[in-house]
Amino acid sequence: MTTGLRPSREIDGKGRTVRELLAGRKYSIDFYQRDYKWRQKQVTDLVNDLSEKFLDSYEAGNDRSAVGDYGHYFLGSIIISDKDGQKFIIDGQQRLTTLTLLLILLHHRLEDAEQKGQIADLIFSQKYGKRSFNLDIHERTACMEALYKDGKPSDADTDASESVINIRKRYSELEDNFPEELSGAALPFFVDWLVENVHLVEITAYSDGDAYTIFETMNDRGLSLTPADMLKGYLLAKISDSEKRTHADHAWKERIQMLVELGKDEDADAIKSWLRSQYAESIREHKRNADPLDFDLIGTEFHRWVRDNEKHLGLSVSAEYARFIECDFAFYGRWYERLRRAAENPTLGLECVHFNAQHNYTLQYPVLLAPLCVIDDNAGALRKIRVVAAYLDILIHRRIWNWRAIDYSTMQYAMFLVMREIRGKSAADLATLLGDRLKAETETFSSNDRFRLHGMNGRQIHRLLARMTDYVETRSGQASRYTEYSQGGRKGYEIEHIWADHPERHTDEFAHPSDFQDYRNRIGGLLLLPKSFNASYGDLPYDVKREHYVSQNLLARSLHGQAYDHNPGFLKFINESGLLFHAHAEFRKGDLDARQVLYQQLAERIWDPDRLSHEAVS
Which of 170, 224, 267, 403 is deepest in the core (most CB within 10 A)? Predict the structure, then answer.
């Protein structure tokens, strides 16, 4: 008798598009599976790769049907254990979780109702009025519901798992750093491309034993050689002296081990940053079907690029290959490691590296390495890095203030030009060159007197307010609390509107609620306060809240007259800076205008191009 059951040892492998993989299908994970652990870097790298591949084909004015002829992208494989029709993910949940988060974000940004519905089918299914997610993991349901419904990661539950905490963070970062070039008219095309032209291989086993055997085989044997491994093998093979080859091999392993400890793929990223910073002379034109050049090829196949560019790299005899590993790679790899650690945790003298990293500015690493020379001592290299990091800090915040994108695809070409221009320069030359670049820019903080909070720049404004608040306090003689102010979440800080959301209280100055909302969201009407404060006092009138501001940070306290009594550090800062701080007994439209000007002036001081000259000699 035929039962219709599959043989227990059968294994299936099938290529699927994102639509085929997710539409109408449910996946789960066993309780012993690891948490969702992808960090900001992995998510950013994936989105940048997808964006770059899509933009290789996209041309404004295309018909939507042209997407079928766009290039395709392979996202890797996933391994599934099928237990009587229920699919459990053995390998691939990091990618599927991230893909689901990206689909939720795209669903919120799409305007076309039909396309939104198609995307919704890839995120969840609905039966008897109850929604269940296609990536069906019970502990994540409430978080995913909040993201799908409101586009806001709820942080109400205090006992959230590591997976849920990471999902919240990664979604917020996706929202903040979604490439500008994929927005607007390009968005429907990108969604079509993602769903139909991005492929994965689904490998299905019908027992856990078979599934894990496949997983172990692919990870232990089938995928053993990385590009970094292949580059090492090629370089070592060119060293003829066995003793020198052994010494170079040891130097390589030592440096790689330190980089691997930073996280997944950090060894490859260090090599890419090093080679781009010192040797990339060309970059692909931003047009359809343009050929990849130095910058691009280093990003995708640096081991081949090195082999094809020996002469450019100064590699011809055995000793030069040994030098390339023991001197060059050791030097730039060590500095990359130091920069990455400074990016994760504020480091004295390298604070701007951390600030830039908080805006997910991964392009900073090859730019920071570009002026370094292997003969630089520690102090000289630090001065160069501080100048370049300060330049990027100023550039990033000017662009944010003027509503300009800072995502990878938007900034890549400009950063390539900067990197090539500053290669090998002294700290003094860097300060002059990059300072002149900033002074030639037409967009500064005074260019946009209506800068405000809107739906997609909340995290950017949070960090900007954290810098402003910390600047006022440290210049007034207080200890830095930037790390505290920059933290969000349940116990952290959040943006406080000085005006509560009650347009009826302001009808004498605003005829329409939309005019009120525009003014209410301007940066001059914002503060950074503990989340508990907003929950307790945020809805109150200004004259009541103002009394409670006295116990908060100095930027908030400056609205009250008591901030100016018996506070010599603050008064000295005001006198020396000339900033127009003063108390506000009431907070009307004119008061917000004055505060807007104050914040503009404060930004001009914090992100002053003259900082570069100071960094060059400090």
Answer: 267
